Amino acid sequence: MNNNELLKYLPNKDVVFAGLHGSRAYGLDNKDSDYDLKFVWKLPLQNYLSVEDIKDTGYSKQLDNTDVTGWELRHFLRLVQKSNMTTLEVLQTSNLLDNDAFDELLNHVSLCFNVRGLALQYYKAGKAYYYKYKETENIKYLNNSYRCCTNFLYILHNNSLPSLNHMGNYNNLPSFITNSKVSKLTDYLNYFDVNEYPYNIYHINASVLNNCFRKILFT
Known about the structure:
Number of helices: 11
Distance between the termini: 29 Å
Low-confidence stretches: none
Mean pLDDT: 85
Strand content: 5-15%
CATH topology of the largest domain: Beta Polymerase, domain 2
Number of strands: 4
Structural class: alpha+beta
Strand order of the largest sheet: 1-2-4-3
Radius of gyration: 18 Å
């Protein structure tokens, strides 16, 4: 499916960003893999001038073999500020709309995300995927479990944001890990005590998020 065909699945919203996520972004897809389309939309300006919280902040629908998931712009940026795992991955996908809406934000986030917080999210996701694999014996859950565990280790040892290509992340792990012949996924999960790693002093600057918000809102 080409980009134009994917974009046809977007809802009738003012979309500012759309990217292909999931197995096709991770390099774990096969001929039967579905498409995972993520997008961000903005509301009319008057919606952001009220003291009330915006209620319409999420979108999720499956159309044919395409899962379509979206966030309202301000809600998306608040999740990014919390170093939410999914939104940080979405930031790294190629924008199918061919604009630079989040380029500056991604450059900032790659330097200032919450290291321990993001590592914990991958740690928990790795365990959840593994238990799902044990229940279903579906290989996609095992692949995603190893991906999350690799990213968990990559973050802790490189103090940097993992790329979508988890094998590239694996190849950049210290040799004492890759040469340790870890044979079981549980060994990955128990290799380190994540609680030994303190919260890093970096944070995603609110002014950068606000600048991004205003830039997109008034474009």
